[in-house]
Amino acid sequence: MDSKSAHVDEVAVSPTLQPSNNTGKNAVAEPSAVSRISRVSSIFMVLVGGLALFSDGYNAQVIGYMNPLFAQLYPDAFTSTIKTRLSNAFLIGEVFGMLFFGWGIDRLGRRTGIVFATLFLILGIVLATAAHGKTPTGLFWMMIVGRGVAGFGAGGEYPTCGTGSAEASDETAFVRRRRGMLVAVATDFAIDLGFVMAGVIVLIVLAAYHQHINDGVWRVSFGLGFILPVGLLFFRLRLINSTQYRKHAMKTNIPYWLVIKRYWKPMLGTSLAWFMYDFVTYPFSIFGSTIIGTLNPNNTLVQNIGYGTVLNCFYLPGTLIGGLLMDRIGRKQTMALGFFLWSILAFIIGGALNPITSVFPLFVVLYGIFNTLGEMGPGVGTFLCGAESFPTPVRGHFLGFAAAVGKAGAAIGTQVFTPIQNSFSDSQKGVQGVFLIGAAFAMVGCLITWFLIPDKEKDLESEDARFRAYLEENGYEGTFGESVDAEIKSTAFHI
Q1: Cα-flanking dihedrals φ and ψ of residue 480, to 5°?
Q2: Which one-letter DSSP state was computed for residue 300?
Q3: Is the model's pLDDT at 22 over the cut of 90?
Q4: How far is the C-alpha of 465 from the C-alpha of 9, rounded, in Å?
């Protein structure tokens, strides 16, 4: 810990708001061995968090590539209702996971939340992969249950990895100045890379089966999502909570009314912005291969998955550009700019879809740039704005809530996507309609970002100090912090 951080922490603790018995001035100025372990743990927190979200991206996206396959394997049972529920099961599970683990990581600790989120994800993947039923419809309902459980675990990854990456980057001033890029790579870039690898893996599995469509293709594709979470569990059991959490945790008697009175505006802004982003991006991502199939003249399964994977590749440069811009021009500025450009391009594609699709590769490129702009702004901004807008004691609560509202938007968008397409007289007009609707929602997201999300400084410690002072002014008496010694002994994190 640098001297500046130590000084801020000393002046932040007033006589009224005393640290718990396990903390204090000596505990804040941690011994060098504990400090070294904390920094190593923070590095692994970011790396492991990135790999975990990569796994979540894979497991979320793979279902989109299985939809055309299910339609061929089970033409009678795979109705539009089953298709929508199967796609939404993971998203709805994520909503509950985000809310539960957002609360849990503030009250029980970051590490505890990370471990249990991983266990639920593993359980859900196993259930979905092994799904069986007396009828194809029964098989799909078992698969829906498994996907929902996996979504619950994956939802827990969002607040745990988002808060973990942001707090880990506060360990040193050098890293803090580059938090935008660090969090972008550890969160949204990792998720999008999982999207891309889902397409690559499915194509490899199809090639291994010599393009022969059977239930082994989807079982292997689902089952491969099990490998990485199991491997990461070994490392996650050896992590410790971040320095910020150990200094500022409020495990009991959180004054929720005072918290909401102070942070209602950024809570509203981050939640609604995340809703607008996910409402647009998730349907376009999950049903990307379906849109390609509608417009692709050849309409083969391998081509549609391949084109969908190419489209997902456009996400990756967007996250890196967004991470760079967040460190250069600011968080909310990057997020608002991305929303605005995203909306403009969607209006262009929707308005001129007929001439654009007459040159199919041109449509693929413009669709890819559309994905890039979405990730450049709200894609990377939602995580960091959600983490930086709130103090450490309740960061998990608010980040989990905002992410859950976002995933509710994703579930609603996915639910209405197919009916909107089907309501038009032909499929091409249906694609045009969803682009124009998406453009309108993106523009609303731009306005929400600009007027409701605060322009925060990069130092998390400053907001924690102001939060403590605010509680003191309002007569709150409580304890902050936790002991790290027992935690380090129990995790045996020695590197």
Answers
A1: -125, 150
A2: -
A3: no
A4: 7
CA distances from 204 to 208, 215, 224 (A): 6, 15, 12
Q: What is the pTM of this model?
A: 0.83
CB 9 within 8 A of CB 247: yes
Task: Please name the residue that has the structure tokens 């298709």.
Answer: 83
Helices 215-223 & 32-73 angle (0-180, nearest 10) = 170
CATH superfamily of 4-8+29-248+255-474: MFS general substrate transporter like domains (1.20.1250.20)
pLDDT tens per residue across span 312-352: 899 999 999 999 999 999 999 999 999 999 999 999 988 89
Paired strand residues for 19: 480
Could you give the dihedral angle defined by the CA atoms of residues 252, 257, 261 and 267, in that order, rounded to the nearest 10 degrees? 70
Per-domain residue ranges for the chain?
4-8+29-248+255-474
Contact between residue 368 and residue 310 where contact means Cβ atoms under 8 Å apart: yes
Distance of CA 37 to CAs 9, 48, 153, 242, Å? Answer: 20, 16, 27, 10
Dist CA 454 CA 433 (whole Å): 33
